[in-house]
Model the fold of this input.
Amino acid sequence: MPHPRLSLSALAFAAVLPSLAAAAPSRCERLVAALSSQLADVTCFESADLTTANASTTPLDNSLPGLPAGAFTPRTDRAVLVAAPPRGTPITRAVPGVQLQARFAGDPTGEARFLLRLPDGWNGRLVVAGASSQRSEFNGDFAWSDYVVQKGYAYASQNKGVFNFKLAAVSATPPADPLPCRLNPGSPVWVHFYDDDPGQPFTRWSEVMLDAAAAARRGVRAHYGEPPRYTYAVGTSNGGYQVRRAVELAPHLFDGGVDWEGTFVDAGAPNLLTDLPPAVLNWPDYLASGKSSTSTAYRNFLAAGYPPDLVSGADSLWTHHWASYWELTECQWQKRLDPSYDTYGAGTAGYNYLARLSASDVGAQLAAIATTGRIQRPLVTVAGTMDALLPIDHHARAYARKVAAGLAERGHGEGEEEGRAPDYRLYEVQNGNHIESYADLFPQLQLVLPHAHAAFDLLVAHVEAGAALPADQCVPPGGAIAGAPAQPGHCAALFAP
Done:
């Protein structure tokens, strides 16, 4: 029965309350509406937990309709560089919030994708992640998302505007399609990277990173009613390259960044097209020597900047890089940047970048995507000395030299708004490798992940509270980034027994 003290008008109002509640837009509806001009094919949902402890956080591999296997592999992507918890980022609590995933509506290729996670216990800050290799927007889920969402950061990511790859052929000889790359010189498997397709220049990598930051900031404002107070860029490998470009190009979007094993790109040596051919060239002789550390091939590896091999029976660290990375990565970059080179006719081992400068426009192609070192926001690089894909002296240290040259060239009065040049630090992890999971095979290797997280926290304290960043240093095995490092500067050797 009606309550005796409610008037007829109150009864009438109470009767319409359910319909008003039904008509009120949900948080996802408001978020999607705010981003409707930038995004398409949006999926948005309320999540009981935004960490990867929740199976719904990272989609299944090959779950985007209409794509061949290999093009969209979120669960594979998140585990390529970093192990799952608890070996990777520890997960200590559930993080309720909203997750949105979509593609960028204005992308003519239809491949550029976006991810946004908005925790209920927001700390007022945003993290935007780069994407490693040619991986999806979920590639940082173990490495970065799990860490920052538990601290209350909103988290965004993207895929550099491109899908991964598709199987092209299983054949002893190159297929008719001129773009595929074989997995390694002994493999009959050929894959076609979407990154090598027309309309997918590597210049898009920076553009999509900045687009993701702009969309994320707009989404944060729509969801929480205010913009982020601080925005940070983080990323690993090619995602680290995106971080460097972000703090070089967009101080209006980012307050600082952490790049982990970022790829160094420069039209002059070193770069991937000078680094990788010597590895492909010398591997057969090194293998024929019985993986001898006194062989000429071994010495050639070291002279080319590579860290020493770690041999365990029939297995070795270089063996894994030969099987999965060296030739495949060289091919993918060469097909994009120097497509007139006859990859498998002239040979991957015979590629000579310096000779190709006068035979093609490869120099101009690299110059268009080069990292300049002219950072406009504070940046920290974290890199392992045993990185056998991006050797530290040719990538992390090369970028540090570029930053130092940029500061000398422009003077110390340019940079952040207050007139002080942004700080840059390089923290080298003794015995750290590019692929964290290799530490399970070679116990001499150290995980870089905890040091990347520590560097992030140090960067935040520096940006927001003015705390001094610890000096450049070598982080010893079992050690941590220190305010008064025992080994300032570079590590004395790439491998410490």
User: Anything to note?
Assistant: The two ends are 82 Å apart (CA to CA). Residues 27-162+200-228 form one domain.
